[in-house]
Amino acid sequence: MTGTAAPTINAGGRLLSLAEPVVMGILNLTPDSFYAASRSQTERAVAERAQAIVAEGGAIIDAGAYSTRPGAAPVSAEEESERLRRGLAVVRRELPDAVLSVDTFRPDVARMAVEEFGVAIINDVSGGNPGGSFGGTELHGNASCATDASEAPPMFRMAARLRVPYVLMSSCPDLRSVMLDIESKAQLLHSLGVGDVIADPGFGFGKTLEANYAIMSGLGAMRALGLPLLVGVSRKSMITRLLGCETPAALNGTTALNMAALMGGAAILRVHDVRQAAECVKIASALKGNK
Fold first, then answer.
1. How far apart are CA 1 and CA 225, in angstroms?
2. Catalytic annotation present for 236
3. Which DSSP helix (H) or strand (E) runs through 43?
4. Is the pLDDT of residue 226 over 80?
5. Which of 16, 61, 238, 267 is the most exposed place for a label (fewest CB within 10 A)?
6. DSSP codes, 267-283
7. What would the pLDDT profile of 54-94 be if each residue is shown by its tens digit?
8. Cα 132 from chain centroid?
9. Which of 93, 185, 270, 275 is flagged as catalytic?
10. What does the longest C-alpha to C-alpha distance in the chain come to?
11. How far apart are CA 25 and CA 218, in angstroms?
């Protein structure tokens, strides 16, 4: 897809249709993810989680080995890579044809995942920030000012080199700045040769509680970018803070927001609870079909 909201992305040489929204299931390979029930540490736990994602209707498995929760301890690139190697080896053994995504901000970690395990998508929550900042600190200098490959963020250049779809997340604080940020960076990514750019408004990153809901309410405006939209709100603090509940009790709020995202044009839902999200997709599709 290049600059238009075409209903497919090239995932590892296969066209993944987005004509109907798809579910991306989270595979946490960290010991300290904010949602404890989602952590998969043993080979058996990784295999069972990956199999469950597919069985419950997930089209993509998103593997991450670096926790971005507030206060999480930093992890070296070597440790992140080793966690991913152990986990991805199990997934490939159990599900050799699964469409895999890697959740990382490090270019060399992304390269390892793509080259060694055939990972098809890079999901970079830093928006290309070479320092891996997740909470509002933008790129050193600002990626939108880059004009050629030598000035582009290393992760942008790596995505172009690997020829894989790239999830571009924004940690800007409001809808207008999110759209401007994604638009300028997507143009740079396309100019480098990245064919498929997926826009993620970055719920929970660099935004107030009120701003998160304002962006969700205005999500439809992001269709003007001509990019598939990925929404990840699963059990996040924008739910627990509003409802006054703990993370394990945030499924109902997550489902409500997933439905809002689908009605606003989301093409991909990134979730912990795959079956419930897949049911949302079916209901949203039925509603849209009956308009």
1. 12
2. yes
3. helix 43-55
4. yes
5. 16
6. SEEEES-HHHHHHHHHH
7. 999 999 999 999 877 666 677 899 999 999 999 999 999 99
8. 15
9. 270
10. 51
11. 25
Provide the CA 78 distance to its chain's centre, in angstroms: 22
- Specify whether 270 is catalytic: yes
**Contact (CB, 8 A) for 288 and 21:** no
Measured distance CA(160)–CA(183) in Å, rounded: 17
Q: Rounded to 5 degrees, what are φ and ψ at 64?
A: -135, 145
Residues linked to residue 205 through DSSP beta bridges, in sequence order? none
Distance CA 67, CA 233 (A): 15
Question: Tokens for 75?
Answer: 């992890």
> Is the whole model's pTM more than 0.85, yes or no?
yes
User: Are 121 and 60 a contacting pair, CB within 8 Å?
Assistant: yes
Secondary structure of residue 6 in the 3-state scheme: coil
Q: Which residues contact 2 (CB under 8 A, 6 or more apart)?
A: 190, 195, 196
- Determine which one of 163, 236, 275, 282 is catalytic: 236
> Per-residue pLDDT for 40 more than 80?
no
Burial classification of residue 233, based on how many CB atoms lie within 10 Å of its CB (0-12 exposed, 13-18 middle, 19 or more buried): buried
Q: Do β-strands 60-64 and 100-103 pair in parallel, antiparallel, or remain unpaired?
A: parallel
Rounded (10°) CA dihedral 265, 270, 273, 279: 30
Helix axes 77-94, 43-55, angle to 10 degrees: 60
* 94: enclosing H helix or E strand: helix 77-94
What are the φ/ψ torsions at residue 69 (nearest 5 degrees)?
-70, 150
Instruction: Give the per-residue pLDDT at 288.
Output: 87
The identity of residue 125, as a single letter, is V
